[in-house]
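Can you give me the bound-state structure? Components:
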Amino acid sequence: MKSIEISPSQYVMVIDADRCTGCGACMVACAIENNVAPAHPDATDRTGVTWMKVVKVSSGNNGDGKPACYLPLPCQQCAAETPCVTVCPQNAVEVDQQTGIVFQMSQRCLGCRYCMAACPYHARYFNWWDPEWPEGMEQTLNPDVAPRMRGVVEKCNFCHGRYQAARASAAEHGQASSDPVTYEPACAQACPTRAIKFGTPANNEQGVGDLVHSSSAFRLLPRLGTEPRVYYLSKHKWIRQMAQMEKETSTGEEVHG
Amino acid sequence: MDSKFITRGLERTSLRNFSVWVLFWVVVLGFGLYGAYLCLAEGLNQTNMDNRFVFGLWIFLDLAIIAFGAGAFFTGLLLYILKRSEFTAVINSAVVIGLICYSGAVAVLAIDVGQPLRAWFTFWHPNAHSMLTEVTFCISCYLVVLAVEYMPILLKNRKLKERPSLLVFQHNLHKVIPVLAAIGVFLSFFHQGSLGGLYGVLKGRPFAFREGFGIWPSTFFLFVLSAAAIGPSFPLLTTSLVSKISRKKLVKPEVLQSLGRISGWLLLAYVLFKSVDTLVWINRTSPSLLFSPYEYYNQESFGTWILFAEIVVFGLVPALMLLTRKIREHRGWLITAGLLACAGIAVNRFVMTIQTLALPTLPFDPFLSYIPSWQEIATFIAVIAYGVLLYSFSFRYLTLFPQERDLNSLTR
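Here's the bound-state model for the whole set.
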């Protein structure tokens, strides 16, 4: 296994594919935390907004009895040659150098969707409809996260609202603003099998510093050189080979959370 | 009734016939505008685009008509910079077509983005690394150049010429047209290239990604060359079409043949570069990203036939036809060759936009399909109707073809 170079003070997510049962709890928690509106009645799995999407991956054709697994797919927070950052015509996407989080400024987004075409992981979502909550449900909105309007792009930002809250709390306790703070995104918190770990390798929260260097760690499409900050774990060779394009043809289908 | 607006010596159909023609296209335009209105008012959910097929018919239309609009800059280059005076015969028509193509493309782009009122953000917060920024800047500037280039043509209208102040203005504008043409050539080279670069830089789309020189992928140069190649072919086609509909001789056949010959040489150069580029992509670029190029053509809809059609049927064949004097001198074959050349560039733009998005990047992703909604098609049709109307009015009331009067009086 070749060594993986990452900045130890930046956040990484480690998803254990062998533990994921495909229950979709992460998708639900993510939507609630980040004020993703309930899907429009006409929305499909290709027009909905799912910052976190769980995909079923099979080593053969579906239903032929070959092994399958589930891969939760958030934004991969690419560290190098971040495809969405370079293509955005109006600098609506930027990488926070302190945290490594790729941040989408929806209030500046033109809705041209060039970033979506550029993203190899298809982790960006366009608001095809006006976000609408059933009467009374708007009371459940998270006040730390601004809802997005129709016609702009959005994506996972490692629960930036939680990050900001954690920073404010750390500052109250006298922690220097340059030090990484400890917090947990909604998906990691909601996962019943604890398949999602999150933190900075420097502080080794939830053991992420060790996990990213383990022999079962891999990232999606490494040859593109995007250096994702989302890592996956699996002891199954076929999953690792498939994710790195060293594989035979596989098929996938989406899981609706 | 409107004869006092029509250039002296030119014969035009009766106002009644013209009104029926205009009315038909106004109805078509109205239908198209209704579809476009729905997309603006209700949102892009009216289209069949989605989070994976983020671009569709409109981007294909934009890329294609901007390439077709290259006739304006290329004829300007030939006439004002390379001093090929025989192209005075088609420059006015080429400018009108350029204006139609570019203004149509900008209008469709405004509908295609989710928040059109934020378009100015690109000028306020420009990302110098984005090909789309360059496209936005160049197209906006070039549209202004085309509008200014259209002014002297408009001011030569028989009635407007009666006003001395406008006549002086028109005369002064004429003096700066060569400068504007040079600016237009510069801007066009860049945005035609940047449109190619839009997809060529996408490493996350290995089907479209190309290596290149410096910051520019090879598609940058291929788009410039292909636009220049059909720059002369498209005016050739439109002139022939207008000639057929109006039943008038508009330019001397030698002018069209000359356009065809230039188009042929450039198309041949394009086909050669495109072939080399394809070979480099198949043997080096794509495998280096661990994508087998043969897998791209395993899909039912997009077999290797599309590559063959693009390079040979719609590339090499029209290039060789246009370079053969006997074929050029035969009006029907000349038009056929021009048509094949333009179709080839349209196929190239289709491949770069639609096929790129249909193919999966993630190993567990399926091949996708997309069929435009009626609102998308209606908007497409609106651009065509708008173009026909603007061209029809220009043809009737302005002098688009300076040789027309002499050619038709000789016939009579």
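A couple of observations. Helices of chain A lie at 25-33, 83-87, 114-118, 160-172, 186-190, 208-211, 237-243. Chain A touches chain B through 60 residues (CB under 8 Å).
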